[in-house]
Design goal:
With about 850 residues, the protein is mostly beta strands. Among the domains are: about 1-85 and about 95-295, lipopolysaccharide transport protein A fold; about 710-844, no CATH class. Helix content is about 5%, strand content about 55%. The chain contains five helices and 49 strands. The chain has a 26-stranded antiparallel beta barrel. It has a 16-stranded mixed β-sheet that branches. A hairpin with a 2-residue loop joins strand 42 (about 730) and strand 43. The N and C termini lie far apart (about 100 Å).
C-alpha cells in the first residue's frame, strides 16, 4: 500500500510545483476571506473566486472547470486574515504556495456589503455574489455586481467585463457614479477607460461646483437632472441625449424643465445646447426655441437670452429679445432689439471688454422713428479705463442722448427717468508716491424735459489741472499737505461769466496723540486768483481778482472706556469728547462768480470741516468752537454696536460775513444756535434705529430731522419706517423744502409667498411721490415676481410701470426684472432664491 500511496502523491507534488512556477508568470489570484466563508449560492463546482489579471494577459489560460483542493497561489487582501479554503472531498493538504506579485489592473473584490479594498490608480475591481468567466478575456459578475476604477463606480444586477477591449455591458438596475455625476438606467454599455458608452432610457443627475460670485464666498454646487430615451457618454465631461429633459429642480417631479429633441451637455465649456426645444413650466410649454444654449454652471456663452417684457403708460407693452455674443474670454456683446407698442422699434447693444491694461463698456440705442414724437431718438455711452504705465492712468466717461425727454419717455425707472446732467469727461492721473498730478476735461449735457422748469447746466472745466502732495514725515513730526489747481470755467450760455482760476493751498500740521487723546494744530493759506471774462450784465465788476485767506484750526479729543452691565448683558462703554476750534478771517468775495461752489448740508462730518462751502469760490469766515460728545455701547460678547449717541454744538465768537445767496445764512456772535444730535445702533438682534437732528436755538426751530427704524427678525422679513424733514432745503438758489414719510418692507404672506412694497408720501405736498407693490413666490427651483411701480417726477408727470418675471434658478429669467427696483426700494431686502444671501440680516 505504501508504494501505491507514494505513486499517488508524486503527481500531486508535481502539480503543486508546476502551479507555483506558473504563478510566477501569472497575476495573483486574490480570494476575499469573506467570500471563502460562504458556500457558493449557485454552482458548487465553481466558487465565487475574486480574480486579478493583467490587461496584457490576453492569452491567459481559462479558469478550471472542476474544483481544486485549494486555489494556487492564495493571498488575502491587506489587513485581512486568510481563512481555510473549502474542500468538497477529503484530500491531503498541499504545500503552501508563494504569493505572486503582478501589475494589477483587475481585482475581484468582496461583495458590496463588505468594505472595498483600496485600489491603485488605473486598477479595476469587480465584485459580486457570483463571478465566472475567463481571466484576461471576460468576467461575468452577477448579483449585486460592482465594477470600480479610479472615481468611476458601476453597479448593476449583472456586469460583463471584456478585459481586452475594456468594454462593460451592465444590465438591470444600472447605476454609474463618477465625481458629481450619477446615471441610472436598465441597460448600459461602456468603455471604462475612454469614458464613452450609452445608457438606455436613463435618468441622470450631473453636478458641478460653481465659482463664488464674490471673493470670499464659498462655491456652491449647481446640479442638473433629467431623463432621456438615450444618453451617450462621449468622453470626459461630454454628454449627448436624445428626446431628453434638463432641469435644476428636484428630479422626482420637476416644476420646470427644458425638453429637447437633442441635448448636448458640455461641461468643459459649461454650456448646454438644446435643439428643437421648449421650456415646460407646470407641465405647460411656455416658450419654444429651435436652438438655444444655456449655462450649466454660470459660464458665459453665446445665444438667445430669455426675453423681457413689461408695460408702462409711456411705452405701452414693452418687449425686448436680447442676444448674447461671447466674442472671446475678455470680450462680449449683447444685442437687444426692443418693441414698444406705443413708441415703435428700438435697437440697442452693449459691448464689454477687458484687457491687460484696459477695460470698458460701450452702449448704443437707436430708434429710427418714435411714433409719438415723430423723431429719431438715440443714446450713446462710453466708459473706458486705461493704464499707460504702473503709475499712469486714464479714464473716459462720455454720455449723450438725442433729446431732453429721452429718459422720461423711454425708461420705467425713476433713477434713470429723473436724470438731468449727463457727464462727459476725460481724465489723466499720475501717482508719484507722495504726490499726484491729474488733468481733466469735463462738461455736461443738461436735460430739460419739463419746459416750465429750467435746469441750469454746470460749468465746463476745459481743462482742470491739479497737483497735490502729502508728506507725513517732515521735521519735528510735522505733516505737510499741498493742494494746487488751475481750471478754466466755460459755459454754453452767453449770459454767464467765464474765468480761469488758480488755487494754491499749502498746509502744515503737527499731529500729537497718545493712547487716550489726540491734539492736532494746523495752519495754512488758501490763495486764489481769477481772470474773469465778464458778460455785459456784470461788466462793472473787476476782471482780475486775487484772494489770500489764512486758515488756522486746532482739533483735539479724548477717549475713555469702561466695562458695564445693563439688563444682564456686558458692554464696553466709550466716552469720546472732542473740541474743534476754527479761525478764518473774513475776505470780500461778493465779486467772485459761483463756478463750482455750494453750501454743505450741516452734519457731523461738516461741523469739523474748515469750510462750510464746497469748491473754492467762497471761503467761509469763522471764529468758532465746536464741542461734541459721543458715547457708544458695544456688546462685549459679539462686538456689535448696540447704541451710539452723539451731540454737538458750535459757538460763534464773532459775526459771520461771507454768504452765498442771502444774509439769512449768517450766524451772529455770542450764539451757539446749532445743536446737532444723533442716536442709533442695533438695539436688539432684530431692531436697528438711526436718527439725526439739527436744531436752531435762535429760532427755536428744527432745521433738519432724519429718523428711521428697521425691524428684521429673519431672512426675507423686514419692515422699515423713516421720516425726513428739511424745511430750508435748497436746490441751487431756490428753497424747495422737504417733508416726507417712507414705509417699506418684505414679509412672508403665506407658505412660499412673500409681499414687498414701499410708499413715499410727501407731507409738504400731500401726495404720494413713489409707490411700489409686489408679490414673490418661491417655488424651490423657480421664483415668480410681479411688481407695480408708480412715481412722479413732478406733480403733473406720473409714470406707471408693471414688471412680471419668472426666474428659473441657474438658468435664466423670463420677463421684466423688478429686482433692482425692489432692492433700491426696500432696505434689507433678501432675494428669496439666492443661496449666498445672509439668511439672518438679508441682502444689504
Amino acid at each position: 500500500m505504501l508504494p501505491n500511496t507514494r505513486i499517488r502523491l508524486i503527481p500531486l507534488l508535481l502539480l503543486g510545483l508546476s502551479g507555483a512556477a506558473f504563478a510566477q508568470t501569472m497575476p495573483a489570484l486574490r480570494v476575499a476571506p469573506e467570500l471563502l466563508r460562504q458556500a457558493s449560492p449557485a454552482t458548487p463546482e465553481r466558487p465565487a473566486t475574486p480574480v486579478q489579471a493583467s490587461p496584457a494577459a490576453a492569452s491567459a489560460t481559462p479558469l478550471p472547470a472542476a474544483p481544486a483542493p485549494t486555489p494556487a497561489p492564495v493571498s488575502a487582501p491587506a489587513a485581512v486574515a486568510p481563512a481555510p479554503a473549502p474542500a468538497p472531498a477529503p484530500a491531503p493538504a498541499p504545500a503552501p504556495a508563494p504569493a505572486a506579485v503582478a501589475k494589477p489592473p483587475v481585482v475581484a473584490a468582496p461583495a458590496p456589503a463588505v468594505e472595498r479594498p483600496a485600489l491603485a490608480p488605473g486598477e479595476t475591481a469587480v465584485s459580486a455574489l457570483r463571478i465566472h468567466g475567463e481571466r484576461g478575456i471576460e468576467l461575468v459578475a452577477e448579483g449585486e455586481a460592482e465594477l470600480q476604477r479610479d472615481d468611476t463606480l458601476l453597479t448593476a444586477d449583472r456586469v460583463t467585463y471584456r478585459e481586452p477591449t475594456d468594454e462593460v455591458l451592465a444590465e438591470g438596475h444600472v447605476v454609474l457614479s463618477r465625481g458629481g455625476d450619477t446615471i441610472r438606467g436598465p441597460k448600459a454599455t461602456l468603455v471604462v477607460g475612454d469614458r464613452v458608452g450609452s445608457f438606455e432610457t436613463p435618468t441622470y443627475e450631473l453636478s458641478r461646483a460653481r465659482p463664488p460670485a464674490l471673493a470670499g464666498d464659498a462655491p456652491r454646487t449647481v446640479a442638473g437632472s433629467g431623463q432621456a430615451d438615450l444618453l451617450r457618454l462621449e468622453g470626459e465631461n461630454q454628454y449627448r441625449l436624445a428626446n431628453a429633459t434638463w432641469t435644476t429642480c428636484s428630479p422626482q417631479d420637476p416644476d420646470w424643465y427644458i425638453k429637447a429633441r437633442e441635448l448636448e451637455l458640455d461641461y468643459d465649456r459649461e454650456v448646454g445646447t438644446a435643439h428643437a426645444s421648449s421650456i415646460v413650466f407646470m407641465d405647460t410649454p411656455i416658450f419654444w426655441m429651435p436652438w438655444a444654449e444655456f449655462p450649466l454652471s454660470g459660464q458665459r456663452q453665446s445665444g438667445l437670452l430669455p426675453p423681457t417684457f413689461g408695460s408702462s403708460n409711456k411705452t405701452g407693452v414693452d418687449f425686448t429679445q436680447p442676444y448674447y455674443w461671447n466674442i472671446a474670454p475678455n470680450y462680449d456683446a449683447t444685442l437687444a432689439p426692443r418693441i414698444m407698442t406705443r413708441r415703435g422699434v428700438q435697437f440697442g447693444g452693449e459691448l464689454r471688454y477687458l484687457g491687460e491694461d484696459s477695460q470698458g463698456t460701450t452702449r448704443l440705442e437707436w430708434m429710427p422713428n418714435d411714433k409719438v414724437t415723430g423723431e429719431e431718438r438715440r443714446l450713446g455711452s462710453i466708459q473706458h479705463q486705461q493704464r499707460f504705465a504702473p503709475n499712469f492712468y486714464g479714464t473716459l466717461d462720455l454720455n449723450a442722448v438725442s433729446d431732453d425727454g429721452y429718459f422720461e419717455d423711454l425708461s420705467s425707472n425713476i433713477g434713470v427717468a429723473s436724470r438731468v446732467n449727463l457727464l462727459r469727461e476725460g481724465r489723466l492721473i499720475y501717482a508719484g508716491g507722495w504726490w499726484t498730478a491729474s488733468a481733466l476735461a469735463q462738461r455736461y449735457q443738461t436735460l430739460n424735459p419739463d419746459p416750465d422748469v429750467r435746469n441750469v447746466e454746470p460749468y465746463r472745466r476745459l481743462p482742470q489741472l491739479r497737483l497735490d502732495a502729502v508728506r507725513a514725515d517732515l521735521a519735528g513730526g510735522m505733516a505737510g499737505l499741498l493742494e494746487t489747481e488751475f481750471v478754466r470755467f466755460a459755459h454754453r450760455e452767453r449770459d454767464r461769466d467765464e474765468a480761469a482760476r488758480v488755487v494754491a493751498y499749502p498746509q502744515l500740521s503737527l499731529p500729537m496723540q497718545g493712547a487716550a487723546w489726540f491734539v492736532t494744530p494746523k495752519a495754512g493759506v488758501h490763495y486764489t486768483s481769477y481772470d474773469i471774462d465778464r458778460v455785459a450784465a456784470t461788466s462793472g465788476k473787476p476782471e482780475s481778482i486775487t484772494r489770500s485767506v489764512p486758515i488756522v484750526s486746532l482739533d483735539s479729543g479724548l477717549f475713555f472706556e469702561r466695562e458695564t452691565n445693563y439688563f444682564g448683558s456686558d458692554y464696553l462703554q466709550t466716552l469720546e469728547p472732542r473740541l474743534f476750534y476754527l479761525r478764518v478771517p473774513s475776505r470780500e468775495q461778493s465779486d467772485i462768480p459761483l463756478f463750482d461752489t455750494n453750501r454743505f448740508d450741516v452734519g457731523f462730518a461738516q461741523i469739523f470741516a474748515e469750510n462750510r462751502y464746497s469748491g473754492s469760490d467762497r471761503i467761509g469766515d469763522a471764529n468758532d468752537l465746536t464741542a461734541a460728545l459721543t458715547t457708544r455701547f458695544i456688546d462685549a460678547e459679539t462686538g456689535v454696536e448696540r447704541l451710539r449717541a452723539l451731540i454737538g454744538q458750535r459757538y460763534y465768537f464773532s459775526d459771520q460775513k461771507v454768504y452765498l445767496y442771502d444774509e439769512d445764512e449768517l450766524r451772529r456772535a455770542g450764539t451757539g444756535n446749532e445743536i446737532l444730535a444723533g442716536l442709533g445702533g442695533r438695539i436688539t438682534s432684530t431692531v436697528t434705529v438711526d436718527s439725526y437732528a439739527q436744531y436752531n436755538t435762535e429760532t427755536s426751530r428744527t432745521e433738519r430731522l432724519n429718523a428711521s427704524v428697521r425691524y428684521q427678525p429673519g431672512f426675507a422679513r423686514t419692515l422699515n419706517l423713516s421720516y425726513r424733514y428739511a424745511p430750508n432745503l435748497r436746490v441751487d438758489q431756490d428753497i424747495v423744502g422737504l417733508e416726507d414719510i417712507d414705509v417699506s418692507g418684505q414679509w412672508p404672506l403665506a407658505r412660499q409667498w412673500y409681499g414687498v412694497g414701499r410708499v413715499t408720501h410727501s407731507l409738504k405736498d400731500d401726495r404720494i411721490t413713489e409707490a411700489v407693490a409686489g408679490i414673490e413666490y418661491d417655488g424651490g427651483c423657480w421664483v415668480f415676481r410681479t411688481a407695480v411701480h408708480r412715481f412722479a417726477i413732478d406733480e403733473d408727470d406720473v409714470t406707471n410701470a408693471i414688471f412680471i418675471q419668472l426666474e428659473l434658478n441657474d438658468l435664466a429669467g423670463i420677463g421684466s426684472n423688478p429686482l433692482s427696483l425692489i432692492k433700491r426700494s426696500v432696505p434689507g431686502y433678501g432675494k428669496i432664491n439666492d443661496s449666498s444671501a445672509n439668511r439672518v440680516f438679508g441682502n444689504n
